[in-house]
Amino acid sequence: MGKFNWQFSSLPSFSAYHTEPAHTRFYDFQLGYLNVTRLNKTKTIVAVNGQFPGPAVYANEGDRLVIKLTSNVKENISIHWHGVLQLLSNWADGTAYISQCPLGFGETFTHRFRVTGQTGTILWHAHITWLRATLYGPLIIHPQDNQPYPWDPQPVSSIPILVGEWWTQDTEEIERTALRTGGAPTKSDAITINGMPGPLYKHSADDVFRVKVTHGKTYHLRVINAALEIAVFFAVANHSLTVVELDASYVKPFTVNTIMLTPGQTADVLLHANQSSGQFYMAASAYSVVQYDLQQYPRIAGTGILQYELADDRGLAPNILGMVPTLPNLPGYNDSAYSDSFLAKIKSYNNSMYKVEQVPLVINQEFFFTVGYALEPNNSCPPLKVCKGYLHQRFSAAVNNISFQNPTNISLLEAFYFNKSISKSFKGFPDTPVHKFNYTGPEDQLGNKAPVHSTKVSVLNFNDHVQLVLQDISILNFTIHPFHLHGHNFYVVGWGYGNYDSLLDPPYFNLEDPPLRNTAGVPSGGWLAIRFRANNPGVWLLHCHFEMHLSWGMEMAFVVKNGVGVNQTLPPPPHDMPRCKKQKPKRHH
After folding, report:
1. Is the peptide bond before 383 cis (omega within 30 degrees of 0)?
2. pTM
3. Average pLDDT taken over every residue of the chain
């Protein structure tokens, strides 16, 4: 692959706030039903503007986005702009029952926010129930004022690559069934690339995403893991990938054959078209440390085709070399060694060049959260006599043994902004685990498996310097937990396996060039240490981005207080904020 030179002289100096937006860009999102056929079966999905995946949103760094949502569907809806910092625009975050009440049939809500201090690729998606299975799309932020990217050569074009999952069944019913019976959800039927499973799946020879390239040119692939339940390996046969951004933050470039992304993570990679001709598969396969019989997932890779200009474009007909497309050599489904080696390569660039803020070195708020599965009693699945989870109990999930329960008649942000009396009952999320045990030891702590259901938040002062350690636990299964923090990026200063040691592990933290992310995986049977500044007033969700883990309650929220002055104070809500409808409490989004 060609050498990519970084030219920081052309890179703008980012600031936390802009007095005036560079441009205002308007989008109209019409939410409606769409019939889609995949795997020889047709089903009705919820989509935006009749598109699956949904339309791309484009902006330059510093732009103001005005996105009008109109619901023409019976399902409650909220759309989250995943990875957007939402500085002073918490009302636009789009998180059901956290930042807003969901949108009902016939209702309209306009999201207004600036994209500040970040460039690259992120995504938007539904943030209520399992609608994210089809309600998602790319959000692409170019450098300010169309300045060139800080590498050479400049890519000739950018190509969004959205990895997803496809169920032939109704995903809303899959979630409802799992919650009603206490069992695990049905696995997806296919992995997709830009909504297409590709020709390795039956009845899918024509359901394949294709992109044409020219020999000698450089292309910018914007890879997004929009899947609900799986981390993925992604590769392009006979081509290497140079990683230049992750989660819309620049990294020191490194070149690999395969990248690994958990749900919610994004990668900007450069591909040099170094083949003379031919067709080559781009492929996404499931990555899981849990054995297949315990956590099923599609065993076939989703594929698209990278096709050189001189190649035959008639379906899967042989190209001019007389060959069908070449498949990449992907790691095995449980190749954690490759995943670890990929993660170890990620380093951010010198903060003074373009980062909004530097790594917090002095910490005044420390948290230690256990994250993992839980079990609830077998009498918790009426009208069933027993649940369908392990040992006839109900599968659940928790943070610090608390399974989060959404409010139902008010959003958390509204409750705290207007200082409603109910907000007092929401305070008090524990800084450390309620139950302490050998977190990664033998699974014999049966008394710690039943979580408490509550709506609890942790309150931070403006500009607190926060260190949070997330610790996986051994109850039921070790697995990766991709945690996403709304409203903030965070630095991944350390990670490891086994129990976190507050004396022995911090001396090895990377405080020089740690990755800056909005979503990061807690290692299976290990821990993850992150740091961030609480410099964005509002209510911000922290949650696992595996959808069923979120449904089971693996989440909590931080409330960041206002600071001093207009630039540190959350403005009032817009006039068209949706109102909550009275309903029975639910355990999930």
Report:
1. yes
2. 0.93
3. 90
